[in-house]
Amino acid sequence: MGEGGPDQAILAIFGGGGDLAWRKLVPALYDLYLDHWLPKRFALVGLGRQRLSDEEFRTRLRAGVDQFSRHGRAEARAWEEFAATLAFQSGDFGDRAWYAALDARMSALDRAWGGSATRILYLATPPDAVGTIAQGLGAAGLSRDRARARIVVEKPFGHDLVSARSLNYTLGEVFDESQIYRIDHYLGKETVQNILALRFANALFEPVWNRRYIDHVQIAVAETVGVEQRGHYYDHAGALRDMIQNHLLQVLCLIAMEPPVRLDADEIRSKKVDVLRAIRPIAPAEVSRVAVRGQYGTGTIEGRAVPAYRAEKNVAPDSATETFAAVQFWVDNWRWQDVPFYLRTG
Protein backbone atom coordinates (compact mmCIF):
# COMPACT_ATOMS: atom_id res chain seq x y z
CA MET A 1 0.00 0.00 0.00
CA GLY A 2 1.18 3.53 -0.76
CA GLU A 3 2.45 5.74 2.03
CA GLY A 4 -0.31 7.09 4.28
CA GLY A 5 -2.96 4.56 3.18
CA PRO A 6 -4.81 2.09 5.40
CA ASP A 7 -3.26 -1.30 6.18
CA GLN A 8 -6.62 -3.01 5.78
CA ALA A 9 -9.78 -2.05 3.94
CA ILE A 10 -13.12 -3.52 2.94
CA LEU A 11 -14.80 -2.20 -0.20
CA ALA A 12 -18.53 -2.89 -0.51
CA ILE A 13 -19.86 -2.10 -3.99
CA PHE A 14 -23.63 -1.70 -4.13
CA GLY A 15 -24.52 -2.55 -7.70
CA GLY A 16 -21.48 -4.82 -7.80
CA GLY A 17 -23.06 -7.00 -10.47
CA GLY A 18 -23.58 -4.03 -12.80
CA ASP A 19 -21.79 -2.53 -15.77
CA LEU A 20 -19.79 0.09 -13.87
CA ALA A 21 -18.16 -2.48 -11.58
CA TRP A 22 -17.51 -4.84 -14.50
CA ARG A 23 -16.16 -2.25 -16.93
CA LYS A 24 -14.45 0.34 -14.68
CA LEU A 25 -14.17 -0.35 -10.97
CA VAL A 26 -12.84 -3.89 -10.72
CA PRO A 27 -10.40 -3.61 -13.67
CA ALA A 28 -8.99 -0.49 -11.97
CA LEU A 29 -8.74 -2.31 -8.63
CA TYR A 30 -6.98 -5.22 -10.33
CA ASP A 31 -4.49 -2.76 -11.83
CA LEU A 32 -3.89 -1.29 -8.36
CA TYR A 33 -3.34 -4.80 -7.03
CA LEU A 34 -0.71 -5.56 -9.68
CA ASP A 35 0.97 -2.22 -8.96
CA HIS A 36 1.02 -2.98 -5.18
CA TRP A 37 -1.26 -0.09 -4.25
CA LEU A 38 -3.99 -2.05 -2.50
CA PRO A 39 -3.82 -2.49 1.30
CA LYS A 40 -2.07 -5.59 2.62
CA ARG A 41 -5.42 -6.87 3.81
CA PHE A 42 -8.19 -6.14 1.35
CA ALA A 43 -11.65 -7.53 0.64
CA LEU A 44 -14.28 -6.59 -1.93
CA VAL A 45 -17.94 -7.44 -1.43
CA GLY A 46 -20.26 -6.97 -4.39
CA LEU A 47 -23.89 -6.41 -3.46
CA GLY A 48 -26.84 -6.63 -5.80
CA ARG A 49 -30.14 -8.25 -6.70
CA GLN A 50 -28.55 -10.83 -9.00
CA ARG A 51 -28.40 -14.41 -7.71
CA LEU A 52 -24.67 -15.01 -8.05
CA SER A 53 -22.36 -17.31 -6.17
CA ASP A 54 -18.90 -16.02 -5.27
CA GLU A 55 -17.42 -18.08 -8.10
CA GLU A 56 -19.95 -16.81 -10.66
CA PHE A 57 -19.21 -13.25 -9.54
CA ARG A 58 -15.47 -13.78 -9.96
CA THR A 59 -15.92 -15.35 -13.40
CA ARG A 60 -17.99 -12.39 -14.55
CA LEU A 61 -15.46 -9.88 -13.24
CA ARG A 62 -12.53 -11.67 -14.86
CA ALA A 63 -14.16 -11.15 -18.26
CA GLY A 64 -14.24 -7.41 -17.53
CA VAL A 65 -10.64 -7.38 -16.32
CA ASP A 66 -9.47 -9.26 -19.42
CA GLN A 67 -11.12 -6.65 -21.61
CA PHE A 68 -10.48 -3.40 -19.73
CA SER A 69 -7.38 -3.75 -17.52
CA ARG A 70 -4.49 -1.59 -18.68
CA HIS A 71 -2.24 -4.59 -17.97
CA GLY A 72 -4.10 -6.68 -20.54
CA ARG A 73 -5.56 -10.11 -19.94
CA ALA A 74 -5.21 -11.40 -16.39
CA GLU A 75 -2.53 -13.99 -15.72
CA ALA A 76 -3.85 -17.09 -13.97
CA ARG A 77 -1.79 -16.87 -10.77
CA ALA A 78 -2.27 -13.13 -10.27
CA TRP A 79 -6.00 -13.43 -10.91
CA GLU A 80 -6.40 -16.30 -8.45
CA GLU A 81 -4.72 -14.25 -5.73
CA PHE A 82 -6.85 -11.19 -6.47
CA ALA A 83 -10.06 -13.20 -6.91
CA ALA A 84 -9.65 -14.64 -3.41
CA THR A 85 -10.53 -11.17 -2.10
CA LEU A 86 -13.86 -11.08 -3.99
CA ALA A 87 -17.27 -12.15 -2.70
CA PHE A 88 -20.89 -11.46 -3.60
CA GLN A 89 -23.91 -10.89 -1.39
CA SER A 90 -27.33 -11.18 -3.03
CA GLY A 91 -30.32 -9.32 -1.69
CA ASP A 92 -32.65 -6.39 -1.92
CA PHE A 93 -31.72 -2.77 -1.21
CA GLY A 94 -34.83 -2.38 0.93
CA ASP A 95 -34.13 -5.38 3.18
CA ARG A 96 -32.69 -4.18 6.50
CA ALA A 97 -31.47 -7.70 7.33
CA TRP A 98 -29.23 -7.50 4.25
CA TYR A 99 -27.30 -4.61 5.80
CA ALA A 100 -27.01 -6.42 9.12
CA ALA A 101 -25.50 -9.36 7.23
CA LEU A 102 -23.01 -7.00 5.57
CA ASP A 103 -22.04 -5.58 8.96
CA ALA A 104 -21.56 -9.11 10.31
CA ARG A 105 -19.36 -10.00 7.31
CA MET A 106 -17.22 -6.89 7.83
CA SER A 107 -16.94 -7.49 11.57
CA ALA A 108 -15.81 -11.08 10.92
CA LEU A 109 -13.03 -9.76 8.68
CA ASP A 110 -12.01 -7.30 11.40
CA ARG A 111 -11.69 -10.15 13.87
CA ALA A 112 -9.77 -12.33 11.41
CA TRP A 113 -7.37 -9.48 10.63
CA GLY A 114 -6.97 -8.45 14.25
CA GLY A 115 -7.95 -4.82 13.76
CA SER A 116 -10.52 -2.36 12.45
CA ALA A 117 -10.53 -2.01 8.66
CA THR A 118 -11.49 1.11 6.75
CA ARG A 119 -14.98 0.52 5.32
CA ILE A 120 -15.69 2.01 1.90
CA LEU A 121 -19.34 1.85 0.87
CA TYR A 122 -19.44 2.47 -2.89
CA LEU A 123 -22.83 3.15 -4.48
CA ALA A 124 -22.63 2.20 -8.17
CA THR A 125 -26.42 2.38 -8.38
CA PRO A 126 -29.15 4.53 -9.95
CA PRO A 127 -29.93 7.68 -7.93
CA ASP A 128 -33.35 6.39 -6.88
CA ALA A 129 -31.62 3.67 -4.82
CA VAL A 130 -29.23 5.97 -2.92
CA GLY A 131 -31.69 7.09 -0.26
CA THR A 132 -32.84 3.54 0.48
CA ILE A 133 -29.26 2.29 0.76
CA ALA A 134 -28.16 5.18 2.98
CA GLN A 135 -31.04 4.57 5.37
CA GLY A 136 -30.29 0.83 5.45
CA LEU A 137 -26.63 1.52 6.23
CA GLY A 138 -27.63 3.90 9.00
CA ALA A 139 -30.06 1.44 10.56
CA ALA A 140 -27.34 -1.24 10.62
CA GLY A 141 -24.86 1.14 12.26
CA LEU A 142 -22.52 1.04 9.28
CA SER A 143 -22.20 4.83 9.22
CA ARG A 144 -21.50 5.26 12.92
CA ASP A 145 -17.69 5.14 12.91
CA ARG A 146 -16.67 8.47 11.35
CA ALA A 147 -12.99 7.56 11.45
CA ARG A 148 -13.25 4.53 9.17
CA ALA A 149 -16.64 4.52 7.38
CA ARG A 150 -16.84 6.26 3.99
CA ILE A 151 -19.68 6.41 1.50
CA VAL A 152 -18.96 7.02 -2.19
CA VAL A 153 -21.83 8.12 -4.45
CA GLU A 154 -21.49 7.85 -8.21
CA LYS A 155 -23.10 10.14 -10.73
CA PRO A 156 -25.80 10.95 -11.67
CA PHE A 157 -26.58 12.58 -8.33
CA GLY A 158 -30.37 12.76 -8.63
CA HIS A 159 -32.18 13.69 -11.83
CA ASP A 160 -32.87 17.37 -11.14
CA LEU A 161 -32.16 20.08 -8.53
CA VAL A 162 -34.96 18.98 -6.19
CA SER A 163 -33.90 15.32 -6.16
CA ALA A 164 -30.21 16.24 -5.76
CA ARG A 165 -31.03 18.37 -2.72
CA SER A 166 -33.16 15.54 -1.34
CA LEU A 167 -30.25 13.11 -1.73
CA ASN A 168 -27.93 15.52 0.07
CA TYR A 169 -30.42 15.79 2.91
CA THR A 170 -30.84 11.99 3.16
CA LEU A 171 -27.09 11.36 3.15
CA GLY A 172 -26.57 14.11 5.72
CA GLU A 173 -29.05 12.47 8.07
CA VAL A 174 -26.96 9.29 8.14
CA PHE A 175 -23.36 10.34 7.43
CA ASP A 176 -21.20 13.26 8.45
CA GLU A 177 -20.14 15.43 5.50
CA SER A 178 -16.52 14.36 6.05
CA GLN A 179 -17.59 10.76 5.29
CA ILE A 180 -19.35 11.54 1.99
CA TYR A 181 -17.53 11.37 -1.36
CA ARG A 182 -19.51 12.42 -4.44
CA ILE A 183 -17.54 10.92 -7.31
CA ASP A 184 -17.25 11.87 -10.96
CA HIS A 185 -14.94 9.15 -12.28
CA TYR A 186 -14.25 11.16 -15.44
CA LEU A 187 -11.97 13.41 -13.38
CA GLY A 188 -9.65 10.45 -12.91
CA LYS A 189 -8.79 10.27 -16.61
CA GLU A 190 -5.18 11.21 -17.24
CA THR A 191 -6.00 13.79 -19.91
CA VAL A 192 -8.51 15.51 -17.63
CA GLN A 193 -6.07 15.50 -14.70
CA ASN A 194 -3.47 17.17 -16.92
CA ILE A 195 -5.65 20.15 -17.83
CA LEU A 196 -4.61 22.29 -14.86
CA ALA A 197 -0.91 21.64 -15.47
CA LEU A 198 -1.35 22.29 -19.18
CA ARG A 199 -2.91 25.65 -18.37
CA PHE A 200 -1.22 27.11 -15.33
CA ALA A 201 2.28 25.62 -15.61
CA ASN A 202 2.62 26.44 -19.29
CA ALA A 203 4.10 29.84 -20.16
CA LEU A 204 3.04 29.38 -23.79
CA PHE A 205 -0.67 28.72 -23.26
CA GLU A 206 -1.71 30.64 -20.14
CA PRO A 207 -1.15 34.18 -21.51
CA VAL A 208 -3.42 33.44 -24.50
CA TRP A 209 -6.04 31.38 -22.64
CA ASN A 210 -8.81 33.98 -22.91
CA ARG A 211 -11.33 35.67 -25.18
CA ARG A 212 -8.76 37.77 -27.02
CA TYR A 213 -7.11 34.73 -28.61
CA ILE A 214 -9.73 31.94 -28.47
CA ASP A 215 -12.67 32.04 -30.87
CA HIS A 216 -14.61 29.13 -29.34
CA VAL A 217 -14.12 25.97 -27.25
CA GLN A 218 -15.32 22.50 -28.22
CA ILE A 219 -15.55 19.65 -25.71
CA ALA A 220 -16.56 16.41 -27.39
CA VAL A 221 -16.91 12.88 -26.03
CA ALA A 222 -17.60 10.34 -28.77
CA GLU A 223 -18.74 6.95 -27.53
CA THR A 224 -17.27 3.82 -29.11
CA VAL A 225 -20.05 1.48 -27.93
CA GLY A 226 -23.83 1.48 -27.77
CA VAL A 227 -25.70 1.24 -24.48
CA GLU A 228 -25.06 -2.54 -24.38
CA GLN A 229 -26.15 -3.80 -20.92
CA ARG A 230 -27.05 -0.35 -19.57
CA GLY A 231 -30.45 -0.07 -21.21
CA HIS A 232 -32.50 0.01 -17.99
CA TYR A 233 -30.39 2.80 -16.53
CA TYR A 234 -29.74 4.73 -19.74
CA ASP A 235 -33.38 4.90 -20.82
CA HIS A 236 -34.15 6.81 -17.63
CA ALA A 237 -31.08 9.07 -17.89
CA GLY A 238 -30.12 9.89 -21.47
CA ALA A 239 -27.02 11.63 -22.77
CA LEU A 240 -27.73 14.97 -21.09
CA ARG A 241 -27.93 13.55 -17.58
CA ASP A 242 -25.42 10.76 -18.16
CA MET A 243 -22.65 12.91 -19.65
CA ILE A 244 -23.23 16.64 -20.03
CA GLN A 245 -24.49 17.72 -16.61
CA ASN A 246 -21.58 16.00 -14.87
CA HIS A 247 -18.56 14.87 -16.93
CA LEU A 248 -18.55 17.55 -19.60
CA LEU A 249 -19.45 20.41 -17.27
CA GLN A 250 -16.60 19.36 -14.98
CA VAL A 251 -14.20 19.53 -17.92
CA LEU A 252 -15.65 22.92 -18.91
CA CYS A 253 -14.97 24.17 -15.38
CA LEU A 254 -11.35 23.02 -15.51
CA ILE A 255 -10.85 24.72 -18.86
CA ALA A 256 -12.57 27.97 -17.88
CA MET A 257 -11.69 28.42 -14.19
CA GLU A 258 -9.37 31.10 -12.84
CA PRO A 259 -5.99 30.13 -11.33
CA PRO A 260 -6.45 28.61 -7.86
CA VAL A 261 -4.61 30.20 -4.94
CA ARG A 262 -3.80 26.74 -3.58
CA LEU A 263 -3.93 23.29 -5.17
CA ASP A 264 -6.34 21.80 -2.66
CA ALA A 265 -9.84 20.38 -3.02
CA ASP A 266 -11.76 23.29 -1.47
CA GLU A 267 -9.97 25.94 -3.49
CA ILE A 268 -10.40 24.13 -6.82
CA ARG A 269 -14.06 23.47 -6.05
CA SER A 270 -14.56 27.16 -5.29
CA LYS A 271 -13.05 28.16 -8.64
CA LYS A 272 -15.28 25.66 -10.42
CA VAL A 273 -18.35 27.05 -8.69
CA ASP A 274 -17.40 30.53 -9.90
CA VAL A 275 -17.51 29.21 -13.48
CA LEU A 276 -20.89 27.54 -12.99
CA ARG A 277 -22.32 30.75 -11.55
CA ALA A 278 -21.05 32.64 -14.60
CA ILE A 279 -22.75 30.34 -17.14
CA ARG A 280 -25.54 32.21 -18.84
CA PRO A 281 -28.97 30.69 -18.04
CA ILE A 282 -30.79 29.24 -21.04
CA ALA A 283 -34.36 30.47 -21.33
CA PRO A 284 -36.95 27.85 -22.39
CA ALA A 285 -37.60 29.74 -25.63
CA GLU A 286 -33.88 29.53 -26.48
CA VAL A 287 -33.44 25.77 -26.01
CA SER A 288 -34.13 24.83 -29.63
CA ARG A 289 -31.54 27.35 -30.82
CA VAL A 290 -28.65 26.27 -28.54
CA ALA A 291 -29.28 22.55 -28.00
CA VAL A 292 -29.72 19.45 -30.16
CA ARG A 293 -30.85 15.95 -29.15
CA GLY A 294 -30.68 12.78 -31.23
CA GLN A 295 -30.93 9.00 -31.04
CA TYR A 296 -28.83 6.45 -32.88
CA GLY A 297 -30.29 4.02 -35.38
CA THR A 298 -28.96 0.78 -36.82
CA GLY A 299 -25.32 1.03 -37.83
CA THR A 300 -21.78 -0.22 -37.28
CA ILE A 301 -19.00 0.61 -34.81
CA GLU A 302 -15.51 -0.40 -35.91
CA GLY A 303 -17.01 -2.84 -38.38
CA ARG A 304 -19.33 -4.43 -35.82
CA ALA A 305 -23.10 -4.28 -36.34
CA VAL A 306 -24.99 -2.32 -33.68
CA PRO A 307 -28.79 -2.39 -33.34
CA ALA A 308 -30.85 0.78 -33.18
CA TYR A 309 -31.21 2.24 -29.69
CA ARG A 310 -34.89 1.28 -29.48
CA ALA A 311 -33.94 -2.33 -30.28
CA GLU A 312 -31.44 -2.52 -27.39
CA LYS A 313 -32.21 -4.72 -24.39
CA ASN A 314 -34.29 -3.04 -21.63
CA VAL A 315 -35.07 -0.01 -23.83
CA ALA A 316 -38.69 0.96 -24.53
CA PRO A 317 -39.57 0.42 -28.23
CA ASP A 318 -41.03 3.95 -28.40
CA SER A 319 -38.30 5.58 -26.27
CA ALA A 320 -37.64 9.29 -26.80
CA THR A 321 -34.46 9.22 -24.69
CA GLU A 322 -31.56 10.99 -26.40
CA THR A 323 -28.30 9.15 -27.06
CA PHE A 324 -26.70 12.24 -28.62
CA ALA A 325 -26.77 15.74 -27.17
CA ALA A 326 -25.03 19.00 -28.02
CA VAL A 327 -25.37 22.28 -26.11
CA GLN A 328 -23.91 25.74 -26.57
CA PHE A 329 -22.93 27.55 -23.36
CA TRP A 330 -21.67 31.07 -22.65
CA VAL A 331 -19.50 31.89 -19.63
CA ASP A 332 -20.18 35.51 -18.77
CA ASN A 333 -17.00 36.66 -17.07
CA TRP A 334 -14.06 38.85 -18.10
CA ARG A 335 -11.97 35.95 -19.46
CA TRP A 336 -14.62 34.25 -21.60
CA GLN A 337 -17.18 36.93 -22.51
CA ASP A 338 -18.66 36.19 -25.98
CA VAL A 339 -16.68 32.94 -26.40
CA PRO A 340 -19.10 30.04 -27.04
CA PHE A 341 -18.46 26.65 -25.44
CA TYR A 342 -19.82 23.69 -27.44
CA LEU A 343 -20.39 20.49 -25.45
CA ARG A 344 -21.44 17.36 -27.31
CA THR A 345 -21.57 13.65 -26.65
CA GLY A 346 -23.07 10.56 -28.22
UniProtKB/TrEMBL annotation:
Keyword list, A-Z: Carbohydrate metabolism, Glucose metabolism, NADP, Oxidoreductase
MF term (GO), any: glucose-6-phosphate dehydrogenase activity
Matching SUPFAM superfamilies: Glyceraldehyde-3-phosphate dehydrogenase-like, C-terminal domain, NAD(P)-binding Rossmann-fold domains
Pathway it works in: Carbohydrate degradation; pentose phosphate pathway; D-ribulose 5-phosphate from D-glucose 6-phosphate (oxidative stage): step 1/3
Matches recorded under InterPro entries: G6P_DH, G6P_DH_AS, G6P_DH_C, G6P_DH_NAD-bd, NAD(P)-bd_dom_sf
Gene Ontology biological-process annotations: glucose metabolic process; pentose-phosphate shunt, oxidative branch
Record-annotated Glucose-6-phosphate dehydrogenase NAD-binding domain positions: 13-194
Coiled-coil intervals: none
Pfam families on file: G6PD_C, G6PD_N
GO cellular component: cytosol
Glucose-6-phosphate dehydrogenase C-terminal domain span: 196-346
Xref: Gene3D superfamilies: Dihydrodipicolinate Reductase, domain 2, NAD(P)-binding Rossmann-like Domain
Similarity comment: Belongs to the glucose-6-phosphate dehydrogenase family.
Protein name: Glucose-6-phosphate dehydrogenase
Protein encoded by which gene: zwf
